[in-house]
Each structure stands twice: as C-alpha cells, then as structure tokens.
Amino acid sequence: MPFIETGIRGLLLFEPISYKDNRGFFFESYNRKVFEQHGINHDFVQDNQSFSVYGVIRGLHYQLPPHAQAKLVRAISGKILDVAVDIRIGSPTYKKVFSVELSAENQKQLFIPAGFAHGFSVLSETAEVLYKCDEFYNKESESGIIYNDAELNIDWQIPAGKIIVSEKDLQLPELRNAQNNFHFNS
Q: For 9, which DSSP code?
C-alpha cells in the first residue's frame, strides 16, 4: 500500500511505486483513483512551486475556512524537512508536530488535510518544492504560526545562524495567538 499512517488522523505519507532501470525512473506522482481508494477525495485546483536555498524555512502557513486547503507536497529537487502541525481544536493530536524528510531521491509525498499548519526547511544546497492544493489561494484567509513557536518546539534541522526566514513569516504570531477556526470532526 503506497500510503503510510503518521499517527495523526488524515495526515498521510504517500510513497509512490517507482520503476527504475538503466534509463532512470518512472512513477505516478498522483492518480485520482488511487487516492480515492484511500479516502482522499480532493479536487486539486492549483499547483504551487518554490525554489529555495539551504537554511530557508517557509511557514508555518494555512488558510482559514471557508478557503482552507488540503495539500499534497513533494520535493522535485533537493531535500526538505516537511512539517505539519495539527491545529484542529478538539483533535486528540491537537498541537502535535509531524515532520518527514522529502527529497527528489526518496520520492515521498505528504498529504496534509485542512486543519494543519504547514512549513518546510531546506536541508540541501537548494530545493524545489511542488504542492497541489484543493482550494485556490485567498489572501484574506491566509494565516500562520511563527516558525520558532516555543510551545511547538520544532527542530527544523538548521543551525540557528544559518536560518533564513522572510520578513512576512517573522511577523506571524505564536500558536496561542494565531487565528484559528478549525475544529476536529470525529
């Protein structure tokens, strides 16, 4: 089975089957039927791609309902530490942090449902990240949490002197002060 449970309901690691030979490799990075067979029934409407250098931390970002986004994230070059935080109020895993290395080499992808804050750090010299979203970007709905929130205590695997964060992301609040109207549905 290409999907691996993460211990947080709805958050799944996807490991596509890769066919490798002397020419290189081939794999399906997304197949709607395969995802639907595993309960992921999302209509992805937007693809985003970023290029970043070593030490960059992007996030933690999310869009508030009614424009909340589910994402399917992968590194198409380089290596990142991908991070998702359950911010669904009432969830048994509320505030739980999950991180996984995604790389062009390991071809893993992380499916992040709505109700999670998302970010990543770049662990290689450079990295390109591609992610599918099931809702269009909506500026009025964007929100986030500061990357170094003391309560979450995320290890981004970047030495303090090498961290690069945008001015916009440095203005994000701690989780306790962040806008959040996500609720866990059991």
A: T
